[in-house]
């Protein structure tokens, strides 16, 4: 019977053979794409402020909605996952990445029906962001309120 | 100038996300969750708002701003309506993003099918 | 008959005919000419990726039957499995085929699990003709094990690309171009690796364990085989396997120990560390390698299909990846 290597030793060997991730290139691409998506956002801000008469505060709502629309469209056309493969966090971190998680989940689940498919699965990947964002905001707001009440 | 800083700050936040995935070995889910919580905390400390004034969309487009907006919504409503405002105000500001994502994603599921 | 843990088949069951089918990406790879059928659409003309996977398996099975000149009623047993939950691809294909059916559950090792069992049943005389096969579909697997297919996540270079394809073969005692001489069923090996995006590294020790056991049982050395082909270790897994074999003091020609996962695609096809999936070993064996055996360019072959036996739930719960490898020795018939 073959003698298997010791687990710890093998894990170390496996780690040594791992292809190193091209971290510098990945970070550069993430920077570029994340920056570009922000610039596109800024352009829509400018558009909504100067052409449609929104204020600096209110312009971010239609801007976000527009970015979300574009991201969902690119997801539906099968393009966003290709961008993501190249850009990594550059297309995951912006709000377009959030929209991509929801649109891709919805598209994939369509074959399982509109209610238990699309309806139940839409937040499968996006859910954690909303849950943790909400809980964190709740705790932070409470702490801030208590501190302000005391000071 | 705001365009330049939007590019730099938006890019930097994304670069931090990439480092979390490549060096910290976090999944995309853990990365975005961490960034959202970070945004909520920075919002509570009052540090995120200056960043948005400085970098515009560079700070409001990354997912960190989602955490910031949730906190801000809760705090603003708290000032107006007291303690219950923490619950009722939470989604006041972020409603646009979430509603748009739900509606457009639903419509997309009706129109497109996954291409792979 | 057996030697150690290895089953021997004295009645020399043979592979009468076999078939391999693939998807569009497989059709652009170096083995394109070895597939009997290439679907140029990832849906294979169906409505869902799951239906497409069934279509792949059914097509491979039907082409193999046609090549052997057999009808569905001429086969007594259908042995098949796949990567989807409850083995639906195999069961639904079995519904279409209408043959007595046993579903297999060896993940990517299913191809050789099925061939070993088919040889066993035929050699023992309980089954006249057995049909065995397996299929995988890249997008059905992505959806089941990873993320939605349109989700823009970046994969690390250790990841592997699930093959869209299927392979099937018919085993019988009738005179055949290729005979099955022995099979070594693997044991489950787990050295504590947890990364589902580096499965080749997790599976290499299972391949090592089965290969060494097989060689010891048969008192053979690697050089007694023209080729030893592992299922889907990919580049990293293969390097680790060679390292383990070397540490065990075996002498071998590294060019003669190859991986099916490194044969299906060209390097520039963006498949990271290589191919994976149940169809990796199945399509390469039932398509490419069978052609070489029939043509006589390979005389004796050991094919070692490797499988990772975790599920998304066990991964989320922090469990490591149990793995397995089954080896089948085949020779050119006389």
From TrEMBL, chain A:
<feature type="transmembrane region" description="Helical">
    <location>
        <begin position="60"/>
        <end position="80"/>
    </location>
</feature>
<dbReference type="InterPro" id="IPR014203">
    <property type="entry name" value="Spore_V_AC"/>
</dbReference>
<feature type="transmembrane region" description="Helical">
    <location>
        <begin position="27"/>
        <end position="48"/>
    </location>
</feature>
<feature type="transmembrane region" description="Helical">
    <location>
        <begin position="87"/>
        <end position="107"/>
    </location>
</feature>
<dbReference type="Pfam" id="PF03862">
    <property type="entry name" value="SpoVAC_SpoVAEB"/>
</dbReference>
<keyword id="KW-0472">Membrane</keyword>
<dbReference type="InterPro" id="IPR005562">
    <property type="entry name" value="SpoVA"/>
</dbReference>
<feature type="transmembrane region" description="Helical">
    <location>
        <begin position="127"/>
        <end position="147"/>
    </location>
</feature>
<keyword id="KW-0812">Transmembrane</keyword>
<keyword id="KW-1133">Transmembrane helix</keyword>
<protein>
    <submittedName>
        <fullName>Stage V sporulation protein AC</fullName>
    </submittedName>
</protein>
From TrEMBL, chain B:
<dbReference type="InterPro" id="IPR014204">
    <property type="entry name" value="Spore_V_AE"/>
</dbReference>
<feature type="transmembrane region" description="Helical">
    <location>
        <begin position="27"/>
        <end position="47"/>
    </location>
</feature>
<keyword id="KW-1133">Transmembrane helix</keyword>
<keyword id="KW-0812">Transmembrane</keyword>
<keyword id="KW-0472">Membrane</keyword>
<feature type="transmembrane region" description="Helical">
    <location>
        <begin position="54"/>
        <end position="71"/>
    </location>
</feature>
<feature type="transmembrane region" description="Helical">
    <location>
        <begin position="83"/>
        <end position="112"/>
    </location>
</feature>
<dbReference type="InterPro" id="IPR005562">
    <property type="entry name" value="SpoVA"/>
</dbReference>
<protein>
    <submittedName>
        <fullName>Stage V sporulation protein AE</fullName>
    </submittedName>
</protein>
<dbReference type="Pfam" id="PF03862">
    <property type="entry name" value="SpoVAC_SpoVAEB"/>
</dbReference>
TrEMBL record, chain C:
<dbReference type="GO" id="GO:0016747">
    <property type="term" value="F:acyltransferase activity, transferring groups other than amino-acyl groups"/>
</dbReference>
<keyword id="KW-0808">Transferase</keyword>
<dbReference type="InterPro" id="IPR020615">
    <property type="entry name" value="Thiolase_acyl_enz_int_AS"/>
</dbReference>
<dbReference type="InterPro" id="IPR038369">
    <property type="entry name" value="SpoVAD_sf"/>
</dbReference>
<dbReference type="InterPro" id="IPR016039">
    <property type="entry name" value="Thiolase-like"/>
</dbReference>
<protein>
    <submittedName>
        <fullName>Stage V sporulation protein AD</fullName>
    </submittedName>
</protein>
<dbReference type="Pfam" id="PF07451">
    <property type="entry name" value="SpoVAD"/>
</dbReference>
<dbReference type="InterPro" id="IPR010894">
    <property type="entry name" value="SpoVAD"/>
</dbReference>
